Amino acid sequence: MDEQQRLRETELTFPSKRKMINPVLGELLQPLEYLIDRKKELNEQIIKAYKANNIYTEKSQADLRELHNVRHQIIITNELKSIFGIDIIEFYEKAHWSIDKNYKANYINLMETIENVMKKEANTELRNTKKSTKTFTNKEKKEIRTLYEEMLKHVKLGNEYKAEKVADNMNQLLKKAIERGVLDQFGKYDYYYMDMSKTLTKLGLNKWNFKNLVTASNNNIIYEDIGDHKKTPRTQQLLNATDKELRKRKK
Question: Which of 31, 44, 132, 230 could bond 185 through an S-S bridge, CB–CB 3.0 to 4.6 Å?
């Protein structure tokens, strides 16, 4: 029996397939299965809107924002698993639902560090090499996997005290790893870079200014000129204009 199978067998049934709101951590990242399904749904909706020439509506704008967010969550989930060898978000979720302990500060620091690294100018060298020199070693990965299995077993047996002690050890390992820069691995990503989306690239929508789109207010510029497309609206006000109005405004 491999480690992943053993880990699954020791897990309890926790709230899942949900819009998870943890009373301490707040909104957590969604389960990967949900994210993948939702990404497919959003891509289909965006393609349909594009073909119907409705890509500039508020609904499509909201779909594009959500797609950006969903893709962002998928990247974070997969990269954290790659860095640490376990699902770190799942650890914080299970620790909070099972143990009366507040790990909020470390969880928030984890997410803020990732976001800050991804919002910096992408590290070209790291993007090419795909790997940071500041890594969580295989020995550390094995140690944290062993601790996680132990925590889950204690939780299953209802031994909260022992589970909490193990979770504390895990939390300290993660804290030290974050402090020494293992999350620099996220520097190969650009927070607003959407060229990795096959659907958006095929439609040419990857060239839109997603920084403006994601952070838009009613008066912000939303889209840059996208070349040969029929319309090049500049503000949310234009998103709801008719074709005739758009033609007049272009003159």
Answer: 132
Per domain, the residue ranges of the chain are: 15-135+181-188
The reported pTM is 0.71
DSSP H or E stretch at residue 87? none
Give how far the C-alpha of residue 204 lies from the chain's centroid of Cα atoms, to the nearest Å. 23
Cα–chain center distance at 236 = 26
What residues does 235 pair with on adjacent strands?
221
Per-residue model confidence as pLDDT tens digits over 204-234: 998 888 888 887 643 444 443 343 333 334 4
**52 and 87 Cβ atoms separated by less than 8 Å:** no
Residues facing residue 21 across a β-bridge: 27
Cα dihedral 141→145→146→151 (10° resolution): 140
SS3 state of residue 134 = coil
- For helices 58-84 and 88-98, give the axis angle rounded to 10 degrees: 90
The rounded distance, in Å, linking the Cα atoms of 151 and 160 is 9
| Cα separation, 215 vs 224, whole angstroms | 14
Amino acid letter, residue 37: D
